[in-house]
Write a structure and sequence with these properties.
The structure holds 2 protein chains of 2 kinds.
Chain A: E1 2-11, E2 14-24, E3 29-33, H1 40-47, E4 55-60, E5 63-64, H2 70-75, E6 78-81, H3 93-97, E7 104-105, E8 108-109, H4 111-125, H5 140-152, E9 158-162, H6 170-185, E10 189-193, H7 197-203, E11 206-211, E12 214-221, H8 227-235, E13 260-268, E14 272-280, E15 284-288, H9 295-302, E16 310-314, H10 325-330, E17 333-337, H11 340-344, H12 351-355, H13 357-362, H14 372-386, H15 402-414, E18 420-424, H16 432-448, E19 451-455, H17 459-465, E20 468-473, E21 476-482, H18 488-497
Parallel strand pairs in A: 3-10, 3-11, 6-9, 9-10, 15-19, 15-20, 17-18, 18-19
Antiparallel strand pairs in A: 1-2, 1-4, 4-5, 7-8, 11-12, 13-14, 13-16, 20-21
Helix pairs in contact in A: 4-5, 14-15, 17-18
Chain B: H1 2-15, H2 22-47, H3 55-71, H4 76-100, H5 105-124, E1 129-130, H6 137-142, E2 145-146, E3 149-150, H7 151-169, H8 171-181, H9 183-187, H10 193-219, E4 221-222, H11 230-241, H12 252-271, H13 279-308
Antiparallel strand pairs in B: 1-4, 2-3
Classes of the chains: A alpha/beta, B mainly alpha.
Amino acid sequence: MLEAQGIRKTYGGVVALGGVDFSVRPGTVHALLGENGAGKSTLIKVLVGALPPDSGVLRLDGRELRVRTTADAVDSGIAVVSQELSLFPDLDVLANLFPMREPRRGGLVARRRMAEKARPVLDELGLHVDLDQSVEELALEQRQLLEIARALCTDPRVLVLDEPTSALHEDATTQLHQVIRRLAARDVAIVYVSHHLEDVLDVCDTVTIMRDGLVAVPAVPAHTLSVDRIVQHMLGDRVAAEMEARSHIDSDAVDPGAPALRFEDVTLGDELRGVDLVVPAGRVVGLAGVDGAGHRALLSVAAGVVRPDRGRVVLPDGRSLRHSIRGAIEQGVAIISGDRKRFGVMLDKSVWDNVAQVSTVGLRRDGLLVRAGRLRDRAQLQVASLGIKTPSVDQEVGMLSGGNQQKVVFAKWFESDPSVLLLDDPTRGIDVGAKAEIYKLLQEQSRRGAVQLVASSDPRELAAICDEVAVFHEGRICARLSGAHLNAHTVLEVMNTGVPPAIDPPER
Amino acid sequence: MLAATIALVLLIGAFHPRFLEAGQLASILNNAAYIGILACGLAFLLAMRELDLSVGSVYALTALACAMLVQEGVNPWLAAALAIVVGGLLGLVNALLIQYAGLPSIVATLATLAMYRGLTLALSEGTQVLGPPLESSFAQVVSAQFLGIPVPGWTLIVVASVLTVVLRATPFGYRVRSIGSNPDAAAFSGIPVGKVRMQAFVLTGVLGGLAGVLTIGYLGAADPNTGTGYELQAIAAAVIGGTSLAGGRATIVGAALGAILLGVVGSGLAYFSVPINWNQFALGAVILGAVSLDSFVRRRRRQSRAAGGLRL
């Protein structure tokens, strides 16, 4: 078993881990929970050799373990699937599965041996991709599964999964959980970190909860806990952040002449087959579906990323959407992705530089001379109104926590005063508290009269924040759920079956 | 950067006082001006993760173009203006190749490096072409001195100042750095990435033309082999100055100073009677030293900042 004892780690005076004991036994799935900043990421980095602790010892089967690099950890049988996707996008699937550990034959990489080893692992995870496909072409969900496959290819004795399901849909999550249970049955020790508490209770045997760099609840059996209790333990004395459902509006009470974002007969290859959808100003409409069902394709069309083969998109001001990213943004569309590191922020630039990126830099609204002083003042206002936790607007965004980085993304879009917000998994990898704050921001945008379209891989999120959810199945909207039908359970069911709930016939 | 340049000048001066004479320093500044102007353009490109290897060839081709126009009887001032336009067009060709043929900039400009140079050799038939006569007002102005500094040196100072404002205080400058920092996020913030790239390449071409026109005015003749290898010196100058090859960060003044520093080292070596054949080696060593020092300082700074801003 893997055991950590008295692990301490400080960063320039800030205590990240204040003497933590943690152990995971073979054959168990052990959840490690806590809010962002509670210390779980640091603990994991220590466990897998990515970060040397200031003090404390690691033991594997009672022998002291000296891991200095992640390669040492892999040699000792510890594998990690990290939250930050760390694949090589230019390489193919097979090359990504065996980085630096390619089976060799006479000094050359033996691709056939690699393939023989890789196929069963991929099949078990339900990842059906060509081995020579470039990783760049894979969907986010497939990339996440590939990352898990890579860890499994090392035949680990200890497997650390940091947010393994953040990009996975329900069926992929279920399949992953089955794989995890099988691994546990083979006596692998598994550490499971997730913000999806229901996932945790579904697959884990044991739960450890961290708070403020210390263990708040050490290794209790999972069946003694509920989501509510876990959240209480995570937050401690702090008020539990509420993910309360907003009052759902009756979708019939829409004035047909009111400004709205309209999709008319939007068709795009096999992905979208004649989609009609009207989203009135001030509404939040969710887009749900399994991978490839078309909900994300609709978002790409609205963002101007792809031009539909047929049909058109009409913006709230009555103009037709120009089908380019820049065109859409000029027309008042905001594109907010959960993949903030790629699409959202400039990590090496200051908060104010980022906040100015759309309005001042992209749209050139401030004319031909940019005055940094003014931009910093404006960023200061956004920081205050969005509650971004940063020492100053000059701080590099890469130094902020994930939740605060995402708020910077919101800030830069709010600066441009958009009339349509397209949100793609807007709270991916963010802790409960920051999520609740972002939901509040979205509600304010509704009051302002903005149209919001949200795609999310978490049906609970959709049920909590949307007035209505359009469920996609094979390129069509198969059901529109609102009111009493709008709950995570129904969304999930319809997503997977394509059959609308009995009393609510499809509105196509 | 400025401090390092001055320190080096003083150091050389301490051993060889003649080095500090105004005429000598002015001549260094003058010689560094051409590469300095090219380096200013490259700083923009590097800041957006692009590269133009053809600047040395553009420099030679525009100088030749100016000389040939003068030979045809065109007024030297007009010829100079047209040659600068030619520079912009050559930059546009680079941009179009990158934009529409989808070539990486290093590949496209590697090709045009050879093609523009080849065109220069072919058009000049391999020999020098005389430019504006020394008594023409154009040649008089270019070789004039003002406060002891020749006009090419002043041009570098003006170009560097104007472009610093462009980089630091115009949407174009912000766009360039945004694209270099995170190209996807830039596109998804409404920044027209292709257009900005095209503008930056045209700017670099125009600067190449400007440098070419200055050299023809100053020297009076266009040598088809002039500016060979300038692309690498200009890149070195920009990098020594503190522009990051990874994109997102640039300093124009740094690029100009980098060119001057290279010039100082080059002529300083002569004073220490280093055999001329060791010059290249010494220049390489200086580049390596300057860049390593910069990277070391930056790493230290990042570490101390990381300690302040805890991220989990």
